[in-house]
Amino acid sequence: MVNVIVELSKFVILTLMVVYTFHCFYMVKQQSEEERNESLRQQLMLIFFMDFTAFLVIYLKTGKFQVVTFYAEMMVFFAGIQILYRMLYKKASILLLNNMCMLLSVGFIILCRLDVATATRQLIIVTAVNLVALAVPVLIRKMKFLKDLTWLYAGVGILLLGAVLVLARTSYGAKLSLMGIQPSEAIKITFVFFMAALLRRGADFRTVVQATIVAGLHVGILVLSRDLGSAVIFFAAYLVMVYVATKNVGYLALGLGGGAAGSVIAYHLFGHVRQRVSAWKDPMAVYQNEGYQIVQSLFAIGTGGWFGMGLCQGSPEKIPVVKNDFIFSAICEELGGIFGICLILVCMSFFLMIVNIALKIKKPFYKLIALGLGTEYAFQVFLTIGGATKFIPMTGVTLPLVSYGGSSVASTVLMLAIIQGLYILREDEDEEIERQRRKEAAQRAGKTAEAQGSGNF
């Protein structure tokens, strides 16, 4: 009986995910506020039923009561964050909030299936960070001086990255963390704020040179630390923000050329890079060594097929670092390739929402922040999934909100809280424009009535 439930559950979970993904894009076309609210409520119900089905299966297969306890705690967290956002921020983007809950749900399901203790630690971190992040949108609205701290952002970022380079121990071939914390995750945010503050008043040649020097220091320290995934994310954010601020294709071409040259240099300088490229080119040839991870990842994805093996039916634990770098492979093995595609589409919906917010914001500082954070998010997703599927060499970054990792999930939650603040600012700007339009219309109507009265007299 349990096997029948497990077999049916994978189709139920897949159907719920497909419908949720459809809602993410369908809401773009909806104009009625009532229709949007109904779709948002349906999304919450889809998340609830998906979580219930998945954790029921995990409990039936493992028999661990800790799974039930974890599920109850997780649902309390989701209910609390949904209620608090609606109470504190009437103008918040509920679709953005729903997408965060969906991605966290997928991560909790897979982490709990792999190790309940790991999933519990992730939930504690997520809960604590979200409580802090609740204050971020109002700070974004009120703290107007953030745009004036340009060189403070740069100094803090370079100092912390330098400390990691000097003091951190090497782990998996790279220097990543100090005392269990990965500073590069937080510096992703300060770096974007630095770039936005520097480029907000214009982007002449002198300003671009300053931005390039500081960005080069960030990326250079990360390369020396062999944190190549973060280096690529920082470089991508720099390139996009400079191009948007200057609208100069020449800077974009120079940046891409410089990035390509830097990649070649890194390949010849670092054995760590050569190993990953070798594993990417022909993982079976180096299966016993550096190719083992990617081969196991591809085996897992291939074994899952379109519909997956079903929760607790696969062997994702055979993939090294599966909870961090290769969680997408575990998802595809047990929940299916179609589920994995839907997950990518939800991430894409996330990114498109951020770009839409950026395009509608009038103030350059906030516009550049939204674009920078959106670029970092999109590239991190691309690097993680691209590496797990052998589309690109592995870079060792996590899938935002899904993979296990305290620093990563904390940074992503704070980034999304900043985006919520920017969304609310955009709503404020729209309201101000509407008030101004009504005021001008009233003034015109008053002048017309006055002119007609004078004519009659």
Compute the CA-based radius of gyration. 24 Å
User: Which sequence of strands runs across the widest sheet?
Assistant: 1-2
Mean pLDDT: 87
Based on helices, strands and strand pairing, what is the structural class?
mainly alpha
User: How many distinct beta strands?
Assistant: 2
What can be said about this structure in brief?
This protein has a domain at 2-144 and 263-428. The chain has 17 helices and two strands.
Question: In words, what does this structure look like?
Answer:
The chain has helices spanning 2-26, 33-62, 65-88, 94-114, 116-133, 136-142, 150-167, 183-199, 205-224, 228-246, 249-269, 271-281, 292-304, 327-335, 337-360, 364-388, 406-456; strands at residues 170-171, 174-175. It has 457 residues and is mostly helical. The chain has a domain at 2-144 and 263-428. The chain has a two-stranded antiparallel ribbon with strand order 1-2. It is globular, with a radius of gyration of 24 Å.
